[in-house]
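Researcher: Quick test of sequence recovery. Tokens follow.
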């Protein structure tokens, strides 16, 4: 696995979208793969929570006939947590502060997820 390429993708997303404070890439079972986050963030805990979030949201989308889940976004009083499906085997968590431009994040994240999927498949 090309960890340098994965790290570059996470760093690029953080640098290109104002308000992104950290990113974590994990396997769909909640095992962290790589993180670009402050030291106060525990990638293992974030990955586990994101995996649970993704699993529940994926089932809700499928059971209600809404198709394949691509993302969830949690809007909190102090910022945002977005969880993106990277295929069926991985997920990406993006943490953002109150200044995060969610629309810009949604726009910028799709090509990043596609590239990360390609890197993971190689």
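Model:
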């Amino acid at each position: 696995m090309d960890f340098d390429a994965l790290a570059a993708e996470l760093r690029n997303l953080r640098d290109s979208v104002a308000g992104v404070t950290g990113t974590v890439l994990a396997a769909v079972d909640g095992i962290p793969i790589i993180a670009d986050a402050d030291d106060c963030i525990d990638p293992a805990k974030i990955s586990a929570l994101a995996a649970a979030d993704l699993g529940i949201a994926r089932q809700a989308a499928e059971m209600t006939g809404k198709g394949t889940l691509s993302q969830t976004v949690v809007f909190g009083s102090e910022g945002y947590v977005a969880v993106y499906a990277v295929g069926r085997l991985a997920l990406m968590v993006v943490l953002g502060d109150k200044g995060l431009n969610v629309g810009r994040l949604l726009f910028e994240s799709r090509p990043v997820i596609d590239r990360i999927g390609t890197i993971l498949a190689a």
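The chain has a mean pLDDT of 93.
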